[in-house]
Amino acid sequence: MEKKIDFRSTEMNEVVKEVREMRMKISEECGHDLNRLLAYYQEVEKEMRKSGKYKFHDPEPPAEKPAPTESTRDEAAD
Hints:
Number of helices: 2
Structural class: mainly alpha
Helix content: 40-55%
Number of strands: 0
């Protein structure tokens, strides 16, 4: 039987609070600069990938869109 998580529990609220505090600390260290934050998290990701300790799901590249075909509105479809 799977244990259900009560997201409104005091324990969960403490976890959320801790995560928010860490995010704020990291943001402060980056001067609340979005580009520096992005670079920071990209570096963390690179190090985590190198460690081999974590699994990552890489999204598949977007499929190429077919080239648009010219159509004229004056022509009727067959």
